[in-house]
Amino acid sequence: MNQAPTPGLRRLRFDASPCNFPRAAVPMLAQPELACLQWQVNPRLAMSPWGTESFKRGRYALHEAMRRSGLGPGTALLAPSYHCLTMLDPALRLGAAIKLFPVNANLTPDIGALKNIVHHQHGDQRIQALLIPHYFGIAQSLENMLELKQICLDAKISLIEDCAHILTLGPQHPAPDAGIHGDWIVSSPYKFFPITEGGLLWSSQHDHANASSETHTPSTGPRWREILVLWQHIFGIKTLRTRSTNRADFLPNFSQAHEWEEACDSASPYYKPNDELTQESILASRLIRHTNIQALQARRRENFINWLEVCKTLRQATPLHTELPAGTIPYMFPLLLKDFKTHFDTLKRAGLPLGRWDNMVDSNCPTAKHYRMSLVHLPCHQSISKSQWTWMASTLRQILEK
Ligand SMILES: Cc1ncc(COP(=O)(O)O)c(C=O)c1O
């Protein structure tokens, strides 16, 4: 594949493995468990409903969206400065350049700065697509989405709506205010349903029959790994590997994480070109169809609201959002640490499940610079048990309240 480096673009890398953090005591993603499954099939839920194409993960659906948008050598993807690498990898894989626009503290796009980039394009890397995510399940405002749509229309740029953090399975199972604006829309069902993989692609305008992937493969049967994971979770013991909450456990670790910078001229190790083929998993589709969607939605909302309550008294961290909009089904609970140097390590050492986008392409966006190390993502999924919840809340308080 042709690779066109973006001059000067640097990827900031972080590897915590030298710290030997314990495995998280609570899974980051939902596990198959009987409370959120039902015997009856829900006909409205399907992994690959009409008008969508299935991929192994959202990143490969993004690759196809970007390819169909015309990204390739000599073109550029316009993407937010706050991102995970898998959002940019597909463009790098296509040989396109990356241009980053700044985001505001609440993770909305800085539309003035974005317009400036679009209107003052120079050089031979024409912006061909704009990628806009709805972070952590909170949809961008309708006003912003309509403005971005207009900017794209005027500049003949394809709008790719990244719904990886939104609970949606395509045009027939839309989410409020998301998954309806982009020329191409991508979602990542394994982030919401207890399945091991899944990425979906659809379009608000294009006829899939005419634009179908060159790489389509027929659906695959259940894979052994999926069956094994399912078996372990449904019939196994709920995994709360609760650690002692003794203060000694929270002592900072003296082995340092490995941090470095590298040229960003090809996709990161998180992108596997061999997985670009479209695919459907029968087991994943079955599990989705037997999901009790009302229970899933209610428990995610309840857990997010519980996190808001717990975080009210924290001195060392503040939630990114102060409320959960009506009808929103959250993916994660984003929490901003005041002193990440001390507390990220301590939280990880205590076994708390934490995500963080510490691998990121460098930019001069102040929000991205700050959030890369300070914004952590806590799970709020439907399979967190009462005891797991109590343990997570008290451990977080113990570390961040003083
Ligand atoms: C906002 C966003 N978009 C896209 C992706 C890629 O999704 P997937 O993990 O399904 O490849 C991710 C991955 O976490 C993401 O956070």
Textual characterization of the structure:
It is a single chain. This protein has 402 residues and is an alpha/beta fold. It is built from ten helices and 13 strands. The strands form three sheets. Strands 2-8-7-6-5-3-4 form a seven-stranded mixed beta sheet, sandwiched between helices. The chain has a three-stranded antiparallel beta sheet with strand order 9-1-12, with no helix packed on it. It has a three-stranded antiparallel beta sheet with strand order 10-11-13. The N and C termini lie far apart (52 Å). The N terminus is likely disordered. The protein binds pyridoxal-5'-phosphate.
Mean pLDDT: 87
- Indicate the low-confidence ranges by residue numbers: 1-5, 209-216
What overall geometry do the principal axes of the alpha carbons give?
A: globular
Order of strands, main sheet, comes to: 2-8-7-6-5-3-4
- List SSEs in N-to-C order: EEHEHEHEHEEEHEHHEEHEHEH
Largest sheet composition? 7 strands, mixed
Distance between the termini: 52 Å
User: Roughly what fraction of the amino acids lie in strands?
Assistant: 15-25%
Please give the number of β-strands: 13
Residue share in helices? 25-40%
Structural class from helices and strands?
alpha/beta
Bound molecules: pyridoxal-5'-phosphate
Helix run count: 10
Q: How much is the radius of gyration in Å? A: 21 Å
Can you summarize this structure?
With about 400 residues, this protein is an alpha/beta fold.
Looking at this protein, list some descriptive labels.
single chain, 402 residues, alpha/beta, seven-stranded mixed sheet, three-stranded antiparallel sheet, 16% strand, globular, disordered N terminus, binds pyridoxal-5'-phosphate
